[in-house]
Specification:
With 229 residues, this protein is α/β, with parallel strands linked by helices. 33% of the residues lie in helices and 21% in strands.
Length: 229
Amino acid sequence: MRSRPDETELRLEMADSGPGIGADIRGRIFDPFFTTKPEGLGTGLGLSICYGIAQEHGGRIWVESEPGKGATFIVTIPHDPRQEGQQVAEPPLPPQPAMGPLSVLVIDDETALRNALLRFLQRRGIQGQGVSDGAEALRVLKEHDFHVIISDVRMPGMAGREFIERLRRERPELVARLIFSTGDTFAPDTAALLQEVGAPTVTKPFDFAALERVVREVAAQGARPQAST
C-alpha cells in the first residue's frame, strides 16, 4: 500500500500478489451484488460501497490487473492544500434520550461493512458491538442488553431466519428492537422473511443518515411505556 499527495488530488494504491482479475469480470467488480464467492459467503457490496464513497467525495476508484500478476486498486480524491488541517464538521448530535447513550448490536458476516457501520455509530454518539452471525449474537445477548439490533439476512452459520426464530423463543421482548439490513430484498425467501417479521429494513448499500434515523426511531419506540391491558 502507498499513498501519494500532489497539488490536486490524493492517490491511494493497494496492491496484492494474487492471481489477478480477468478482463471478463474486471468491468463488473464495482457493480452492486456482483461476487465470485459461493452463495451465502458474500454480498457483492464491498467494492460497490467503496465506489460510492469515492464518488461522494468527488473521486474515482479503479483496478489495474493482469492474470497471474496480482491486482492494484487505485483511489483518487480531490485535494486542496489550502484546506490542509481544516476540520470537516459532522452534523450535530441529537440530544441523548432519557435512557442514556444508545447501544446497538450489529450482526453481519462482512467484516468491512460491519466495522464501517460501527465506526459511523461511534461518531454519532451511539455505542456499538459487532458479531458475525446469529449464534454469536444470541451468546452476546445473554450477557449484554442493547436498545437496537441490526441484523443481516444472509450469513454463513446462523442466518437471519434461524436467528429471528430463536429470538422469538428465547428473547421475544427483543424482536421489537430488530432492524434488518440486507441487499437481497428481491429474493423470494428474503422478501417473505421481511414481510413476516415486519421489522424496519434498510437496504445495502445504505444511506448512513437514513440508517441513523431508523435506529433512533426503533430505540425511542422501545423506550416508551407499554400500554397496560
